[in-house]
Design goal:
Bound molecules: glutamine
Strand order of the largest sheet: 1-3-2-4-6-5-10-11-9-7-8
Number of helices: 15
CATH superfamily: Amidase signature (AS) domain
Strand content: 5-15%
Structural class: alpha/beta
Order of helices and strands: HHEHEHEHEHEEHEHEHHHHEHHEEH
Number of domains: 1
Number of strands: 11
Largest sheet: 11 strands, mixed
Length: about 475
Amino acid sequence: MHGKTAHELHSLLTNKKISALELTEAVISQIDKVESRVQAYVSINKDQAIKQAKAADERIKNNSNLTPLTGIPVAIKDNMCTKGMLTTCSSKILNNYIPPYNATIVDKIKAAGAVILGKTNMDEFAMGSSTENSGIHPTFNPWNTKTVPGGSSGGSAAAVAADEAILATGSDTGGSIRQPASFCGVVGFKPTYGRVSRYGLVAFASSLDQIGPLTKDVTDTAILMNVLAGHDPKDSTSVNLPVPDYQKALVNDVKKMKIGYIKELLGKGIDKDIKSEIQKAMKKFAELGAELIEVSLPSFEYAVATYYLIAPAEASSNLARYDGVKYGHRSKEAKDLLTMYYNTRREGFGNEVKRRIMIGTYALSAGYYDAYYLKALKVRTLIKEDFAKAFSQCDVLLSPTSPSVAFKVGEKAADPLSMYLSDIATIPVNLAGLPAISLPCGFSQGLPIGLQLVGQAFAEETVLRAAFTFEQNTDWHKQKPSL
Ligand code: GLN
């Protein structure tokens, strides 16, 4: 049961072939079997999950209020607030934080009747690409536990790949849903900025952060998007637009669809094996009737540098609230208020988080603001304009999700710049606020490769349709790691 998708399980549940309790127990026993090797979770809520599964069985028995998520076990990234349940962001500074409220997406998932298994590990405050920056413990890639699962939503991606959850949520500021999805061989989708409410998502870089699904196939992504998407008066950046039924977008047809492959992301710096699998994917799309066009986005060259000014600048402001006063860790070694602030932050934050706070504070300081932060905002506009130009010629853009497959644990831990470069293909999409998916498209050295498809703002349906068509005509998503 634990190896199946939500849509397969939904029909088994509603046809009474299995119960939600049996399903939840099956997933929990898979967790018991593999979690010591994968370490995808930071907290697991077995008792609550069993209770929720029984409640789901009641709903199924009475045939009342059924949704495609009723009785489906879901994992939540640990930067999304869960009432009464630890929400640590994998940081020591929040290691005792129990929110008094739910994130909007948690309320929605619960209202749909899903079972919440627990909270997944991440890079501290979502800063990282390997989940090695977790302040709690690292997570390992189910395909090869000597390699990283990607990050920052590495726990969610690994949980889905290892069948320790049927569905999971992630957040994506510069690639944190798509890159781990690519490393773990699952589907990861970042919606358009504003499509999903950020209320109750612990803020990293507010103009970039977006919540989305990590799933075993594209259909499950559409199903979870149907629950997550929509306007929320509690998030002023969430957009008040009608939400389509994303499952209806899943049409196996790309005839006449114009797909632009990004020249800059198929050249220097991209591994040979990745390039060749992406080229095979392009051929597949052509066989299926799509028209492939080369597009150039010259300002991509500046995207990583731009991101590493804007994201830390916003983070330095967002993380000012962790001072030991209202919640979270408070240093015991303090004689006065100022030393309490200093010590709390010194003890509570990890090195990467401190590095970002320092870069961001620097970039926003008087005298540097114009030279760095303001300049970065201008380049961000150029990147948006490059995308607009590209979309005047095509419907979706195609590239690898990541320039390499999963790297070895420790390989990049001491070199932040090489870590930052692993988001070279995903970061521009966040800067422009666009929707993008990563889906499996091949293997290299036994590790999965991800294909990225990007759409215009609020054209989630086009992206899902292209992804669904590719998936229906390939078998990559059916491969499983042998843990
Ligand atoms: N890896 C990028 C970073 O470290 C992106 C993280 C994310 O999307 N949350 O900032």
